[in-house]
Amino acid sequence: MEEKSKGTLLMEELAYKKKNAYEEASETLRKEIFDYSEGYKAFLDAAKTERESVKEAIRMAQAAGFTEYNFGDTLSVGDKKYYNVHGKSVALFTVGKEDLAKNGIRILASHIDSPRLDLKQVPLYEDNGMAFLKTHYYGGIKKYQWTAIPLALHGVVALKNGTTVEISVGEEETDPVFYINDLLPHLGRDQMSQTGAKIITGEDLNVVVGGLPYADEKVKEKIKLTVLAKLNELYGMTETDFLSAELSAVPAFKAKDVGFDRALIAAYGHDDRVCSYPALTAILESTGNRTSLVVLADKEEIGSEGNTGMQCQVYVDLMQKIAEAKGADFAAVRENSKCLSADVTACYDPNFASVYEKSNSAILSCGTTICKFTGSGGKGGSNDASAEFLGFVRNLFEENGIVYQTAELGKIDAGGGGTVAKYIAKLNIDTVDIGVPVISMHAPYEMVSKADVYATYQAFAAFIKD
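RESULT FIELD:
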């Protein structure tokens, strides 16, 4: 074997180079990566909305010995608790033994909402042989991607009689699916001359839900009536009940391995369940000796608003109750707490290389990704973590053998985006974004590397361990 030159050795010692996690992994570790991904895929298929994510998280938490917390309950050292935030967000926490005023809380903050198509409050209409539901898209999407694919309908309806029914149609093999029409290319000349934002407009995203006329010649809207009759038969609904419903059309695709080697996963909702699931499993598998808090929040895709989004006071109230249980000054607790904002980042895509600056982009399978700042342009709307906190995170990952990389969200003036980090940092808590790089982010079917998912789980587990 040729001996390495002095310069080569010095370069290896001094230069920064990203490492492919699969190349670094032993056969045993590769098996762990693939086995962990099976649980993640099952979570994706069971939790396509924030409500379903909360239900699945609580089911997993209860199986791991966590019990429900309600404000007013007494907290003690050793407690493992979850708090259900209106059925659309959930917080899980452990009360550790350490000096909380000195060591603070270790926080993992992610979100469980994803881009989708919400039904309008008066959605149902009939037009020339078809019944449709009108939608209002939620979050940042490329609208044309949502046409001509199988859709499922998920959500809840608060009926006039005071009961609430859950709806999930389109996921089982025997279920019907739903559909948004697109224009055939033979007649699409004018359509294709439009910019991508206008090929399909928001008002074009109408979901086909029926085509069978009701057998009564005296009825004017026969297909609409067939749909209403079916909804009444299955769920006890009338059309008025749409006024108090939260129903969404989401892709009916299942999570699937990608490639001959099965190294990748394609699914709906990687953003941000690909970080929520590692955060969830990390705290469920922890000893509970360290005081830790995992937040799986709603509404991130539309600004973290409302009483289930990260800007809600409830998360501060929870931290304060934990501090009180330990007899610790809350300002001191916040000052010494640390948070990983668990959210995805853009993965370098060689098919669209022009919008990336490669040396500062996340590369697929090169591990979990640290984003010092997000925002847009001149770091507008960004948390921009401190050098000292980044040093702490780097050392933590390196001491625990975690494969990681750093990245920005594409070229400076190509666009941008934000996370929940800035809302937590405002509480005087050191915060940085950590997460999985995603290909085709916000598309109906996104793609990630299994190695990056597992590295993110390892990073979160190391962050909250004793």
